[in-house]
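User: I'm putting together notes for a lab meeting next week and I want to include a structural view of one of the chains we've been expressing. I don't have a solved structure, so I'd like a prediction I can at least talk through. The sequence is below, exactly as it appears in our construct file.
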Amino acid sequence: MKFSKMHGLGNDYVYVNCFDEPLEGVDLPELARRVSDRHFGIGGDGLILIMPSQRADFRMRVFNSDGSEAKSCGNGLRCVSKYVYDHGLTKRTRFSVETLGGVVYPEVTIGADGKVELVTIDMGEPKLDPAQIPLQLSGLSGRGEQPVIDQPLEVAGRTFQLTAVSMGNPHAVLVVDEVRDADVQRYGPLIEFHEWFPERTNVEFIQVLNRREILFRVWERGSGITLACGTGACAAAVAAVLNGKTDRRVTVHLAGGDLLIEWREEDNHVYMTGPAVEVYRGQYLGELPRLAQAQ
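Assistant: Thanks for the context. Below is the predicted structure for the 295-residue chain, given as structure tokens.
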């Protein structure tokens, strides 16, 4: 299986071009677990497949390192956008990509070398209705479709203020006083599997520096601590605006670098701009796990 190793601000995945490598009959969750292993595989936060689509120009499937499938991935979308342009799958600088979370519209900026330098993605409208995230607040009935903003959430004896947002994936955004002191390793998995989130959740710990800057750390559903999360950065910016902490255009400082996020009033869409890097290409020589019916 031929692959490319790519990352967006250190959020690294193994990318497979399924136009050339269709992977028919392959157990994709198990393949993701194997290739993601940093000791016995290629190493990465997961596996991303670039595929044909009947709804858009391309289709992206994202499998986390534990084999679970994500609905979307902001850093992955930027890398997919770079891949399809740099590898000649499209000559257009604006196109559409289908994800399980919906169709999104990347626009690439080309550098002096003719390769993609930056990617801006229209991530669509944030979903705030608890049923769409999904979020089920046990013991808090009668809320209906009201957004969950600054909601107390008690975990292991500590109370966080939760704002819930979906950007194709569910996100629990927690505003903290000092993000460097946040015990992401402890509280991240407890909130990921909290009973309020029937499909689990990504968890963002954010510190607002000023009206235009946010510090950010993340626990990603199915992957754990990562250096960056694009949909998480979008959710963090939306949550900061909903809590009256920032303007609608902010720089989010992630462990792997910066993303520019803008939640535009005119169309209610969130736009993410940032880099994508192809690190190397190779061929995976391990046995591809087969589905039972294909054996």
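A couple of points you could mention at the meeting. The chain has two domains: 2-122+276-294, 130-268. The chain has a mean pLDDT of 95.

User: Perfect, that's what I needed.
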